Protein 1
Amino acid sequence: MRPMHFDLFYELSVPPFMQRRETAVYAETLDELALAEELGFRTAWLVEHHFMPGYSHSTAPDMFLAAASQRTRRLRLGNAIFPLPYHHPVRVAERVATLDVLSQGRAEFGFGRGFSPVEYATFGVSMADSRSYTEEAMDIVRRSFDGAPLSFAGRHFQFENLEILPKVVQQPHPPLWTAAVSPDSFEMAARLGIGVLVGPFKPWFMIREDIRHYRAAWQRYHGDAPAGAGQNPRVAMTLGVYCHESAKTARERAREPFEWFYGQLLNQTRPVLENLYESYEYYRKMGKFRGLLNKTVNLTLLDTLGMAAVGDPKHCIKRIEALKKAGVDHVLCAFGAGAMPTEAVRDTMQLFADTVMPAINGDGR
């Protein structure tokens, strides 16, 4: 079994109850990434969201990751995700390549459709066109990595003989990932031969089935051979984490920030869960499950459903061992659910690195 990679996940939240300024969130997060590199974490992932005050102030993650590239030397830097319908794919290709150059080959490229009706309306894109737009955009970005002049004639984009600059450092290109929520998105990822980024949208028992589906589909499309240079099937799952020597203390300290974070997540996804948007039918089906969380967003339920890992090292090890056994390759740790003071986040990162990571992977972490 391959070793598990331990990553970090950030929304750059600014919870009102913490009374912490945006400037402090940005500065403290950069400090946490420097510490993460020292502790042996592999990748830092940042989302892109817009118009979500409190919950997410990460509107330009590639700029933040560019700053992080100058504070670190080994930590890999990932977009989770570029919502392609909001951007011209040539600009995305240029920005990914710029990050790859600045980081000397540490960029990871995650893409997806996004899910916010407000974002779609603001950026002038129809949600009904999201799939076709994303597939065309992804094709363009992927082909841009070849370095040759690029031409394209599609439904949404047309251009001829463009020289995309700068060129990516990694060969053949940065690792590719896609956000995966519906079974169709896992199928698409397997067909394209790229990794899946699984967010905190669904309970573990549903994700476990999605992983089975993804790996079976990969086998159908590619057999035992990886699809492209080094692009093996890869599953990365976001998990809210707070680890403390005392399980009781962990639960007491994590209750308010975790319940706030997941409550905010529910509020942000509610429009697409409760209303039927073309090409987002699966979200409507998930809305039936969300009715349960809507009434009882509490830490006990989140832990029971496998959407968070809060407790002592023994509890966290047990939870993550189950993920590894089911085929999760990367755990994207949202330490403190992005809603705890940086001192608490740094302490739990240290404890996690000292106890959980060696228990899962041995001394190699």
Protein 2
Amino acid sequence: MSRVVRIQEDAIDIALSYGPSISEGIRAMESRLKRAERKQLDIEAVRMAVREELESFGRY
């Protein structure tokens, strides 16, 4: 399915820097954002685990 939408000129350039077409560029950007979110969540989980372990050592 195709749609006609209006986007700003600089948004076209940004999308095309991620892929050969605007649609592919948007898909690539979404993929990168999802990967970045997953990595960020993993880092927070590690921080919480380390914090909990350090707190448990402090109780001894």
